[in-house]
Amino acid sequence: MDIKVRYFASLRDRMGRSEQQVSVDKEQLTVADLWREISNDPIPDTILVAVNMEYTDSSHELKAGDEVAFFPPVTGG
Amino acid sequence: MDIKVRYFASLRDRMGRSEQQVSVDKEQLTVADLWREISNDPIPDTILVAVNMEYTDSSHELKAGDEVAFFPPVTGG
Amino acid sequence: MKVFVTKDALDPYKEIMAFEREALPAGKHGGVVSFVGTMRDFNDGQNVKAMNLDYYPGMTERHIERVCQEAMDNWDVMDCLVVHRVGEMVPTDPIVLVAVWSAHRKDSFDACRYIINYLKESAPFWKCELTREGQKHWVEKNSEDPGVAKRVERKTA
Amino acid sequence: MKVFVTKDALDPYKEIMAFEREALPAGKHGGVVSFVGTMRDFNDGQNVKAMNLDYYPGMTERHIERVCQEAMDNWDVMDCLVVHRVGEMVPTDPIVLVAVWSAHRKDSFDACRYIINYLKESAPFWKCELTREGQKHWVEKNSEDPGVAKRVERKTA
Fold first, then answer.
1. % of chain D exceeding 70 in pLDDT
2. What pLDDT is stored for residue D148 in this prediction?
3. Chain segment D3-32, per-residue pLDDT in tens
4. Does residue D61 surpass a pLDDT of 90?
């Protein structure tokens, strides 16, 4: 399945990009699985995740076409 | 003693004027005494009084040059 | 602190911007809370076309200033501005503006609410409705309290 | 309800007046409470010259709109406007505007405070300080809470 992945704030700097398309040849994929596809490091403790712009957690089951965003804790405006 | 008397809102309409100078040939004068000089009616229950722009009551002892204002309960802005 | 009463049409946001430029040091306040009160349509009495607001020049300003000072003593507020319209006004006219600047928004909110509650409930103003036939009707209020006793309530209202 | 995020300089009172003209029926609201947040001087770090505020286009607006809707459901509010600046900004720049219209001022105050508390504490924004030497420093916040758990506190804060 194809997933669009986005990074914000310090995580964008760390990942060296603001977004990427990830294609995974699997039927089932959680957010945690996705993270293993994009990074060799463990998922940082404080990192938040949103799927299709809604907060969720790393056990969330993804479906094709989802937009997944990883970002540090928000600071407010 | 000379006293400046002012009326506001419905009381101004009722008194037919917005202010008047009252000269009273007395050494001591309360607000209640002053009212008897200016009106034959008893002082209306709800009427508020201010002397020199501070709220007070009818027992207040006046002195020459005071500005006394009578008005109905305030409605706020 | 600036408090004034005016018979002229009120442009509230122009007043806020002008006061902020003149009176506030740049870069020190974190925010400003403002309340702008507007004259509503008359609900009871289709016959009423306008309102005339009476006040006691000198006393009205003095008592509003005192309440602004109370607000500045009670909360961590940098400055405040109050402008109140008087005289004849019609629905949609802005009537009153309260603006409070502070470093922290909680203080601005509390102080602004305190001041507007005083203005709306206890400040020396008298409302008079004007009918289409040209008659005056003074609004009556069953309150013997000129404003002092309500202070505590205003704080939490 | 109108919520938008902009990289352009923010003229908050112009936005309030324009929205009131366009969206509010004349003579129905009794008042509008607004909060305008301004970027303060930097207290810690004389070396910081500006701030860059990052956001998640689409998600940020969606979550702000949701909180505005909560405010409109919880209080008797006629309409509300939120404008938030993002990108690079310097001290004295207006950053955020919240304006809430209602028939009764208490509802406007409560709803406006609810919305700005959300924006300041939990909305999806990320602050980055920019030093005079051109370095970036992302502000860290020790919060695992994306905003949901603080709802009740915000109501009374």
1. 87
2. 40
3. 999 999 999 999 999 999 999 998 888 899
4. yes
Local structure of B33: helix, strand or coil: helix
Q: Which of D13, D41, D109 sits opposite C109 (nearest CB)?
A: D109
The residue of chain B with its CA nearest to that of C52 is B9
Average pLDDT over residues A72-77: 94
> How far is D12 from D98, CA to CA, in rounded Å?
9
Quick check: helix, strand or coil at residue B55? strand
Question: In this predicted model, what pLDDT tens digit does every residue of A44-71 receive, in sequence order?
Answer: 889 999 999 999 999 999 999 999 999 9
Contact status of C66 with chain B (Cβ, < 8 Å): no
Q: What's the complex ipTM? A: 0.90
C30:D38 CB<8 A? yes
Q: Are C139 and C129 in contact (CB under 8 A)?
A: yes
User: Do A1 and A16 form a contact (C-beta atoms < 8 A)?
Assistant: no
- Nearest C-alpha in D relative to C157: D106
| Neighboring chain D residues of C31 at a CB cutoff of 8 Å | 35-38
Rounded to an integer, what distance in angstroms lies between the CA atom of residue C83 and that of residue C5? 6
3-state secondary structure labels for all residues of chain D: CEEEEECCCCCHHHHHHHHHHHHCCCCCCCEEEEEEEECCCCCCCCCEEEEEEEECCCHHHHHHHHHHHHHHHHCCCCEEEEEEECEEECCCCEEEEEEEEECCHHHHHHHHHHHHHHHHHCCCEEEEEEECCCCEEECCCCCCCCCCCCHHHHHHC
Inter-chain Cβ pairs, chain C and chain D, closer than 8 A = 84
Please give the structure tokens belonging to residue B68: 């006394």
| Residue D93, min C-alpha distance to chain C (Å) | 8
Distances A42 to A5, A50, A67, C150 between C-alpha atoms, Å: 17, 18, 20, 60
Phi and psi at residue A56, to the nearest 5°: -155, -165
More confidently predicted of D141 and A30: A30
pTM above 0.80, yes or no: yes
Cα separation, C156 vs B77, in Å, equals: 20
The DSSP line for A23-67 is E---S--BHHHHHHHH-SSPPPTT-EEEETTEEE-TTPBP-TT-E
